[in-house]
Amino acid sequence: MARDLAKSTLDRFRRRLDAERQRLLAVIAEIEAEQEEIRLTETSSERSPDPNTAEGGSLAFEMEKELSLARNAGDLLAQVEEALGRIGAGTYGRCIQCGKAIPVARLEALPYTRLCVGCAANHR
Ligand SMILES: [Zn+2]
CATH number of the domain that 99 lies in? Predict the structure, then answer.
């Protein structure tokens, strides 16, 4: 077994991840509400945004932007939840690829990371 993180350190990361999770859930809820609003606006005018008109083009762009934001927030949320799961399972702070302990400084910067610096570099 590689070194284990102190319980107080784990608790600190759990709190940070929890806060990040709440923040992401709020962001996602907001994006979903906005999308619903855009969709309703669209339905009431009974046509899809036509990208060939300036108005339709910017609406389509707007929706695309929101969607990619939601995807990013969703990806991040999945990583945060996975990290919380690893805290629960007692594998948090260990690289999932090589099994080495991830330096606390790296966890401080990226609490939801699951790779050590070496493996993250090879990943790219
Ligand atoms: Zn590694």
Answer: 1.20.120.910
